[in-house]
Structure formats: structure tokens, C-alpha cells
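Review form for a predicted model. The reviewer records the input and the model, then writes brief findings.
Reviewer: anonymous (R2)
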Amino acid sequence: MKVSILNRYSLVFLLFVFVFSQAQGTIDEDLKKELDGIYKSDQILREYIDSKTTDSRKMQILNETGYSKDDLENGNVYKILNTRDSINLIRIEEIIAKQGYPGKTLVGEPTNEAAWYVIQHSKKIAYYYPMIQEAGASNEIPFTKVAMMQDRMLMQEGKEQLYGTQVSGQYILNPTTGKKEFWYCVWPIQNAESVNELRKEAGFATTVEEYAKSMGIVYKKYTLLEIKKITGKE
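Model under review:
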């Protein structure tokens, strides 16, 4: 039985659509591998200094990175982190300049969050935030990441955050002891009374109180003025 010309064109068209859709969904494995390495570089020393990281895991991290415990003492870990962050940002900016944000379509999940972490730990959040918004709107990254970056940008600008995702910590003078102590708080939130509703809408699984507790903080609502008074920056 002969296939009509119309049917032949239909088959060719369907084949083209199939091949195109497959190509669109193809993961760039080389880029994925590189971004996975960048993500590990960004996170592994931050995991080391996390208070929830066990001693056995810390030993694993030292073995993986080649650092000794002494290498990371006396604030040296933060110097190393700053250097790593700078190197990672240079490469991420090269990738973005060439092909835009490397999102879910290009590198899959969770690798699509690697560039986000590098930007989040940089001083270029305000510059890249519109791109992050676009990536969130097109489902290339989770909206929770967009919310977290917006909160950090607002905090860096000295404004109230929206979703309660950012914690601030610094040394302050204890008026009772006269000694400097490290003090943490959840950065002031705009419309704090309804923040948990907003968090739920954004996709966060915890309340701001639960989030603070996971960070070892008892949640308390502060105003920007109160923070300035406590930190002596009034």
C-alpha cells in the first residue's frame, strides 16, 4: 500500500517535532559536570563551619579538600571561602554571558541551582536578580531561590526582607558583661504578621519560627531601628 504525499509530509513533520523536542530536552553533560564541581566548591567549606556538621563529617571534608584543621582556624576558612567565591563567580559570569542562566532545561536538577548559589554569595546580587527572577518565572529554578535572593538583596540595601529567609550575625557589646559577643537574629521583615502565609505561597515548607529554630535562633520580630540600636549603628 502506497503512502500518500500528504501522509509522507505528516510523517516528516512529526519526526522533525520529535527530534526537536528531544534536542530541547538534552542535558549538557559537560556543563552539568562543571557546575556540580562549582557547587561543591561553594558549599563544602560552608558545610565544615556549620554548627550542625558532625566531627566525623568534618574529618571527611578535610580529607576531601586536602586542608588540615589548622589551615581553617583563626578565620582562615573565610579567607579561603572568599577566594573560592571570587574564582567561582568569574566562571559563572562567563557561562551566563555565553548562554544565559544554566537552568533546569540545560543542566537538570539540582545542578540548576549551582549558579544561583555562587551569585547569592557574591556582591552582584542586585545586578543578576532580574535574571534570577526570569529563571524562576520560567521554572528553570525553584521560586524559593528567587525569594531568598530577593531577601538578601533587600538586607544588603538595609531594607526589610519579605520572606524571612535571611539571618544577620555580628559582634555586639554585652552591656551586662562589657564583653563583645556574637549575636544572631532574623533580619527585620516587612509585614511580619503575615510572613508565614507568604512563605507558604512561595513554596517554603517551614514557618519563620521553625526556620529560625533550625538556625539555632529564637525568632523575635525586630525593626530596622532596633537593629541599629543593638548593633550601635544608630
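Findings: The CA atoms of residues 50 and 195 lie 26 Å apart.
Further findings: The mean pLDDT is 91.
Recommendation: see findings above.
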